[in-house]
Amino acid sequence: MRIWSLHPKYLDTKGLVALWRETLLAKNVLEGKTKGYKNHPQLTRFKNAENPLQCINQYLGGIYTESLIRGYHFNINKFSLQQQTLKLTVTLDQLEYEKQHLLRKLKIRDSLKYDRLFNEKNIEVHPLFKKVKGSIEAWEVVINK
Asked: What are phi and psi of 17, to 5 degrees?
């Protein structure tokens, strides 16, 4: 499971669809509707939020918005639209780690997305997040490649 801090616009089609499915699974975990993935590290920041379900629904809203921009038809009934805007933080080093992780995937799957992300100097984050200084998040499972 990968719940990206990066803006979903950087994801290729396969990545965006996977993010949608995995975030819906994360929502089910937070709602207590599944037994799997309950302790997945990617859920930590949502579990630690003041209102985890509101945060995950807002996160899904960001993915849904990107799907509309691309002309996809994700099901809006799978999440609750949020009126109040929340912000979670994400560290700059976490963003750089995710950028490098995504670049490895895009190099194989989508050269155009790879080139755009590779040359991006000011990485945008998912609308739920706000950038802060800091090292890779404690919940991240770092893979050295």
From this structure: -65, -40
Inter-residue long-range contacts of 131-134, CB under 8 Å, 24+ positions, other chains counted: 131/89, 131/90, 131/91, 131/92, 131/95, 132/89, 132/90, 132/91, 132/92, 133/91, 133/92, 134/91, 134/92, 134/93, 134/94
| Distance in angstroms (rounded) separating the CA atoms of residues 37 and 25 | 8
Torsion, Cα 41 118 90 58, to 10 degrees, reads -80
Q: How far apart are the first and last CA of the chain?
A: 18
Average pLDDT along the chain, 145 residues, taken 10 residues at a time:
94 97 94 83 92 96 97 96 89 97 96 96 96 96 79
